[in-house]
Design goal:
Number of domains: 1
Number of strands: 6
Structural class: alpha+beta
Shape: globular
Number of helices: 3
Radius of gyration: 13 Å
CATH architecture: Roll
Distance between the termini: 31 Å
Strand content: 25-35%
CATH topology: SH3 type barrels
Length: 115
């Protein structure tokens, strides 16, 4: 299996606690490819359906289906960063983001982390 930065997968995020995003969700791979090739974990940003987020916050990136390859508008919650074992990922991604959109995600993640 080869997971790459910028790819979007649907993964089961359960079990969770509190306000963590739960269930089968789109996740955007944030970790760099040299890390993704190691037998470690992949760092991701969790997404949700666009309908679930009615206000555009500076911590989120809203992505239309045409820009992600997904069927629905997705909002990536850049404050919801997780590291996931590769066993959670299906064999093939469901979509991916362009370099331009990845740059927006990177900027927003840095904002969320105060970097």
């Amino acid at each position: 299996m080869s997971i790459k930065r910028g790819e979007i997968y649907f993964v089961d995020l359960n079990p969770v606690k509190g306000k963590e995003q739960a269930g089968n969700r789109p996740v955007l791979v944030l970790s760099i490819d040299s890390i993704n090739k190691l037998p470690l974990v992949a760092t991701v940003v969790v997404g949700t359906k666009g309908d679930n987020i009615t206000h555009d916050y500076p911590t989120n990136i809203r992505v239309p289906p045409a820009d992600s390859g997904l069927l629905l508008e997705t909002v990536f919650l850049c404050f919801q960063i997780r590291s996931l074992d590769f066993k959670r990922f299906p064999e093939k991604p469901s979509g991916n983001l362009s370099d331009k959109l990845m740059a927006k995600v990177e900027y927003t993640v840095r904002y969320c982390l105060g970097l």
